């Protein structure tokens, strides 16, 4: 019986709720921490700082974060318990952390949304950019994630700001503020320029077709 159990445990298998389980599925005990990343910009900033640096130590993070030393180490423990960061070594007895990539996918009323480190990177700066917090609080994460993707499409010339507003049901002013914020955070635009606004006369007859294309996706 023990042998059979070990054999089963070493297999890669899928269940109704868990896919790609295998040798060591990984300890993920802090699911609430994923949700807190959406609400707590300081926690999101700490995770993002580690991810962007590749590796970081507690003292290095204390130097760069605006929260207290006690809070930094509390956040590190919380992120490690959630499986979002892990220790990869030590420097003269100091733990070195690296961030783990993740994708948290939620499906509500047939709408699926994925939360990734790219989304967290933006949310980490919501205190600096009020439009981000406004969209999250008034419209929720699904609308915010959709707007995030559409702003990236806008930077490629695929959609206009008016179309982003139509697809997300955001007001024109909020849409522009959010586009401007994401352009700044994500360094969008070839020349570092801010997004361009348009008058109604500048939209062509193809707009409805383009809107239909995104609605269908």
TrEMBL record:
It comes from the Archaea. InterPro entries: WH-like_DNA-bd_sf (IPR036388), WH_DNA-bd_sf (IPR036390). It comes from Halorientalis pallida. This is Transcriptional regulator.
């Amino acid at each position: 019986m023990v042998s059979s159990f070990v054999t089963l445990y070493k297999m890669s298998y899928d269940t109704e709720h868990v896919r790609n389980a295998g040798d060591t599925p990984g300890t993920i005990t802090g699911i609430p921490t994923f949700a807190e990343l959406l609400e707590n910009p300081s926690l999101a900033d700490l995770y993002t700082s580690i991810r962007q640096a590749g590796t970081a130590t507690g003292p290095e993070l204390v130097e760069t974060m605006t929260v207290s030393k006690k809070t930094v180490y509390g956040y590190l423990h919380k992120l490690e318990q959630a499986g979002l960061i892990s220790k990869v070594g030590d420097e003269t007895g100091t733990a070195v952390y690296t961030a783990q990539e993740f994708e948290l996918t939620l499906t509500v009323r047939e709408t699926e949304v994925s939360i990734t480190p790219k989304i967290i990177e933006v949310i980490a700066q919501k205190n600096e950019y009020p439009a981000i917090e406004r969209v999250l609080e008034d419209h929720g994460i699904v609308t915010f994630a959709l707007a995030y993707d559409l702003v990236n499409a806008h930077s490629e010339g695929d959609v206009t700001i008016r179309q982003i507003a139509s697809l997300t049901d955001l007001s024109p002013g909020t849409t522009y503020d959010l586009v401007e914020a994401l352009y700044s955070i994500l360094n969008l635009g070839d020349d570092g320029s801010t997004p361009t606004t348009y008058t109604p006369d500048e939209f062509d007859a193809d707009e409805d077709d383009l809107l239909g294309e995104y609605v269908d996706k």
